[in-house]
Automatic annotation (TrEMBL):
SUPFAM superfamilies: YefM-like. InterPro entries: UPF0175 (IPR005368), YefM-like_sf (IPR036165). It comes from Thiocapsa rosea. Pfam families: UPF0175. Belongs to the phD/YefM antitoxin family. This is Prevent-host-death family protein. NCBIfam families: phd_fam (TIGR01552).
Length: 110
């Protein structure tokens, strides 16, 4: 899971290049003022343009394993089925079990 980079307002004077680099890599960043969250920096990319801020944010946080499937669907403003459809349309996996985990899950289910 990728961690969210955190910048203070003061950091922006000396680390603005890091913030831009994060954005170019598709990473979210949190900017704080006096230790409190003030701004969530979301990369301005194709995903944001195509799907809007809520869905782009939900997709990124889900891919980084910072939200569960249900939580991501809620952030995206979609039903669980709708979010699964969105993942499918983008070719993204809804689950990523290893082969061993999948065998274990299937043995419990059957």
């Amino acid at each position: 899971m990728e961690t969210l980079d955190i910048f203070s307002v003061r950091d922006l004077r000396t680390r603005s290049g890091d913030l831009l680099r994060d954005a170019e890599l598709g990473q979210l960043a949190l900017i704080t003022k006096h230790g409190r969250p003030a701004i969530l920096a979301v990369p301005f990319d194709r995903r944001l343009l195509d799907h809007g801020v809520h869905r782009a944010l939900a997709l990124t946080l889900f891919e980084n394993r910072q939200l569960t499937l249900a939580q991501a669907a809620k952030v995206a403003g979609l039903s669980l089925d709708g979010f699964l459809d969105l993942l499918g349309s983008l070719g993204l996996a809804a689950v990523d079990y290893s082969a061993e985990e999948l065998v274990d899950e299937l043995s419990v289910a059957l």
